[in-house]
Fold:
Amino acid sequence: MPDMPDADAASEEEREQALHAMGWSMGQSLNLHMGFSDADLDLIFKGLREASEGGEPPENLEEMLPLARAIYVQLQNDYRQQQEAMAAEIAKENLAEAETYFAELAEQEGIEQTESGLFYEILESGSEKQAGPRDRVKVLYTGRLTDGTEFDSATDRDRPANFGVNRVVPGFSEGLQLIGEGGKIRLHIPAELGYGTGPQRPDSPIEPGSTLIFDVEVLEVIPAPERPTGTPRTAPNRGTPPPPPPDMQPPGPPPDVTPPPPPSHPPPSRPDQDDGA
Structure:
């Protein structure tokens, strides 16, 4: 976590920008983009201002909060349905393009395909020390779309990612186990083995139904510790994307309509890695 900035040393312009960022972060946390009208927002902001000024709560606060939650849930459900319908249309087009892409890819020399539908090209096989589903790996990677759009790169940051093999989407997890320590591989991951066809975050370059291409270098395989006898097995999390994980997933709704407290530090532009490199 970065050091806390010195608020006293901030200029007036920086202070204004920080407070603007705080408001934006609170609005995003509340998902105020889900379909509230301008009149709705005016009333919400009125309540926020009254609370911020230490005013008395509405006389019927306890009576109205259940209705406020019901309104929020209704807007949330309507918004989700709209997003799912839009995602289905986008995915349909992307999946059609992917069918052509993989058909052409299958004809290329050096390209292999697994039973699951993962296409890959081993650039360097690496050592005999290969990762298993329960192991951890330290890797460099670059992720891009079929049109060349790069959406993330630990290689460019020169910061290896360290995570569990079974803590990423199936295509990425499977590809990690095809090479040994020191190896390099290029993965062509169809949507069903990647981020799927559901809605993505509005700011994500990855669309529903997108094919993902990852160039991965396994720097180190970290064997999983021996599980003590009788310890229950933990099912792998198949819903987390390749690193950086959750920033490509749709944010969950807040559990309540009460505004969250101001963040103790500015929200990061991307989530931290699962573990330090």
